[in-house]
Automatic annotation (TrEMBL):
GO terms for cellular component: plasma membrane. Residues 214-266 form the DUF2179 domain. It comes from Virgibacillus massiliensis. Gene3D superfamilies: 3.30.70.120. This is DUF2179 domain-containing protein.
Length: 299
């Protein structure tokens, strides 16, 4: 039921992005949907009908060359997308600033596409052609899809002009970022590598004070050829500054590398909500006490 909801909402968002934002403002797209928009701008053909007819043609070819489960995934989405576009294609109104239209068209399309992919489905199009060429000639699916999408987008120069083609590219970029966030999650986290002679002390403090599990593994310096411990820890973005403060108080010269990560699952990287609440109450005083004690003990 959850996947069906994702497919329905995602498809509706893709359709509304097309009819309410793209069509009234001459913004195109990639793939079959982009081709249908260019035909609409050039000849006023209905994008809903063009999308559906294109899908039927691709579907007939797909049954011959592609595994059936791949074909079945698009049999709900694309007719539904075509229907939504057809029902709403006369509702859009031009926006005075086409750049704003492009930004929001890309955002809404990206969210919708992300939900569709999240449900394990797709909206067909040039990716189906790419898969067919892969099955028959072993062409790269990604490269073929990229070439076909790029060709359709660049065709827009002759239909909607260079400026609106640039707006289209902006919309596609924003859509890619939005769909990545939907697929990867909004709760961004930081992966931190720490190299220090006092790695074990830092690791203990991270576990005790922050409630985060730290992994310590052996490494060898390439220049000095000296063995040393390396810490790997994942923390929520809002805790990064506190982690850096903790590290500096134990070893001001520690080498710290921070990476952005979007999705973390499994393991025991984070404290529970209760443990995290307790940690926030004690962390401000406990770090200084522990660091002072360690220095007096000569660690």
């Amino acid at each position: 039921m959850k996947q069906i909801s994702y497919i329905f909402i995602g498809t509706l968002l893709c359709a509304l992005s097309t009819t309410l934002l793209a069509m009234p403002n001459q913004i195109a797209d990639g793939g079959i949907l982009g081709l249908s928009l260019l035909l609409y701008y050039a000849f006023e053909f209905s994008p809903g009908i063009i999308t559906f007819v294109s899908f039927i043609l691709l579907l007939g070819i797909s049954f011959k060359y592609l595994p059936k489960h791949i074909v079945y995934k698009t049999m709900i989405n694309v007719p539904l997308l075509s229907l939504f576009i057809y029902l709403t294609e006369d509702l859009g109104q031009p926006i005075k600033d086409p750049l704003v239209a492009a930004i929001f068209a890309g955002l809404v399309m990206g969210i919708g596409f992300g939900l569709i992919i999240q449900a394990g489905s797709s909206i067909g199009g040039t990716s189906i052609i790419g898969r067919i060429l892969y099955e028959k000639f072993e062409f790269s699916i990604i490269r073929t899809t990229f070439i076909l999408d790029s060709f359709i987008v660049l065709m827009g120069i002759f239909v909607i002009g260079p400026l609106y083609t640039i707006y289209t590219i902006i919309a596609l970029f924003i859509g890619k970022v939005a769909s990545d966030y939907i697929l990867g999650g909004f709760d961004a986290k930081k992966a931190v590598n720490i190299i220090s002679p006092r790695s074990l002390d830092i690791s203990k403090q991270i576990t005790k004070v922050m409630g985060s599990a730290a992994t310590v593994f052996n490494g060898t310096g390439g220049y000095m050829e000296k063995d040393q411990k390396i810490i790997y820890v994942v923390v929520r973005s809002q805790r990064l500054l506190f982690l850096k403060k903790l590290i500096r108080q134990i070893d001001p010269d520690a080498f710290v590398v921070v990476h952005n990560v979007k999705d973390v699952s499994g393991g025991t990287f984070f404290a529970t909500a209760a443990e995290d609440h307790i940690a926030q109450h004690v962390e401000s005083n406990e770090i200084e006490q522990e660091a002072t004690t360690d220095k007096h003990n000569g660690h």
